[in-house]
Amino acid sequence: MRYISTRDSNNVVSLEKAIQKGLADDGGLYVPENIPQLANQENLNVTNYAEFASSILMPYFEQSDLASSLLLMCKRAFDFDTPFSHVGKNTYMLSLFYGPTLSFKDYGARFLSQCLTEMAVTTNILVATSGDTGSAVASAFSGNPRINVIVLFPKDKISERQQAQMTCWGQNVKALAVDGVFDDCQRMVKGIFADSEIVASHNISTANSINIARLLPQIVYYAYSSTQFYQRHHQPMGYIVPSGNLGNVTAAFFASKMGFPIREIVIANNANRVMSDYLSTAHYQPRETIKTLANAMDVGAPSNFERLNWLMPEFNDFKASVSAYSVTDEQIASTIKETYINKKSFICPHTATAVFVRKQLSDKPWCIVATASPAKFESVIEPLVNVNVAVPEALAALLDKATSVKTIAPTVAALKAQIVGS
Ligand SMILES: *Cc1c(COP(=O)(O)O)cnc(C)c1O
Q1: Residue 306 is inside which H or E element, if any?
Q2: How far is CA 363 from CA 51, 88, 228, 238, in A?
Q3: Is the CB of 250 within 6 Å of ligand 1?
Q4: Which candidate in 82, 308, 328, 356 could, as Cys together with 335 as Cys, close a disulfide (CB 3.0–4.6 Å)?
Q5: How much distance in Å is there from the Cα of 134 to the middle of ligand 1?
Q6: Considering only CA atoms, which residue is closest to atom 14 of ligand 1?
Q7: DSSP structure class, residue 90
């Protein structure tokens, strides 16, 4: 399989090159030249996640040197559970937060780390994060002698536990608190990539959700859960995906375009309503980020819009395939409360957007994608329900570690100084 830029189908590279570069030279995002089509779905074996992952991803690795290691990489990256369960009438939940840093970001970050390790790449990884990406990438790469990680996050805009998970790694992981918002962090990383001199001299790459090696493993859990559902119920299921930068929902569309039994896909946004506005006006207008309770989704200029647009270039086709809801902080808070009162269970604020949207939708079968553990967002949940959210053992161990962080101005120059100085 070869990979092309969303902006130019003549800009063709190998999988390894696409992984190493992250962003294409023309500023586009890499996508596979074509979307592999699923053959004999009936015979798919959904008993072992890593084996399933390897078989689904193999066509994307065709002719790559990584193909022979794919199964091993999947076994190492996905060594935790991916529960898919029935939670209410015609309502299911795909829980993606059993990795080491308790959010779905562990799938992409751990798989990318496996790819780069297998490729024996020496690199400096820059990652802008609204919270969960930073910890997932830091965890996935910590201790890797060939790879330095620089994590940028918006100062004072993430939870204490999120910050602790990003700043506790030391060694090859450097954490920078940017005096700004997430979009500043993202803009600074893009600014560095626009500077070809420093990219070359410091061997810089990215682990943001724009990297194709993060997108590919996210296709797997949609393939896995939709196949399980179809094998049991002989009908396709719809998905509601809490979204910010649109990486996770783009993976759902890839699974659907591959032929997995997915009836429809719904984007659940917080108050950052770029997608709902796009669908109602046919005009894509990035906006300033609004700070919300679901902070990992506080994105005003979602990078992966470009991949969705590549998948569905005609607006009418896009509109027919995508729906988006914008959920307010009040609705998030009341949904967290209600879920606790009715079910005695905690949900994170991001998952709450999808739970809220589920209630607005038809009686057909829907799967809520649960993107993070409530334990990471105790500062939002506890005041609402007046009960302590238990801390899982893995998180407790991280919270005990010493932390280190540096604050920098929201400018490309400030980031450049950090790179050159490290
Ligand atoms: C990153 C994140 C999201 C948003 O995912 P995108 O791929 O950026 O749309 C939602 N929920 C949680 C918990 C996240 O960490």
Answers
A1: helix 305-311
A2: 33, 11, 20, 11
A3: no
A4: 356
A5: 12
A6: 296
A7: T
- Residue 266's nearest CA partner among 242, 293, 300 is 242
Q: Which atom of ligand 1 is nearest to the CA of 242?
A: 10
How do residues 349-366 score in pLDDT, each as one tens digit? 999 999 999 999 989 999
Residue 244 Cβ contacting ligand 1 at under 6 Å: yes
247 in contact with ligand 1, CB cutoff 6 A: yes
335-344 as b/e, with b when 16 or more CB fall inside 10 Å? bbeebbeeee
For residue 263, the CA-to-ligand 1 centroid distance in Å is: 22
DSSP-derived secondary structure for 280-305:
HHS-----PPPP-SSGGG--SS-TTH
Note the helical H segments in 64-171. Answer: 70-77, 105-118, 132-141, 160-167
The answer to which of 25-29, 204-208, 238-242, 277-281 has the lowest mean pLDDT is 204-208
CA–CA gap between residue 245 and residue 269 (Å, rounded): 10
The conformational region for residue 351 under phi > 0 = left, psi -120 to 50 = alpha, else beta, is alpha
**Mean pLDDT score across all residues of the chain:** 93
pLDDT of 130 > 80? The answer is no
Give the model's confidence band at 26: pLDDT under 50 very low, under 70 low, under 90 confident, else very high: very high
CA 200 to chain centre: 27
How much of the chain is in helix, strand and coil states, percent to nearest 5? 50, 20, 35
Task: Write the pLDDT tens digit of every residue in 63-113.
Answer: 999 999 999 999 999 999 999 999 999 999 999 999 999 999 999 999 999
With the most atoms of ligand 1 within 8 angstroms of its CB, the residue from 185, 248, 346 to mutate is 248
Q: Is 305 left (phi over 0), alpha (psi -120 to 50) or beta?
A: alpha
- For the Cβ of 372 lying below 6 angstroms from any atom of ligand 1, the answer is yes
Say yes or no: CB of residue 296 within 6 Å of ligand 1: yes
42, pLDDT greater than 70: no
The pLDDT score that the predictor gives to residue 210 is 85
Residue type at 103? S
Question: pTM, whole model, 2 decimals?
Answer: 0.93
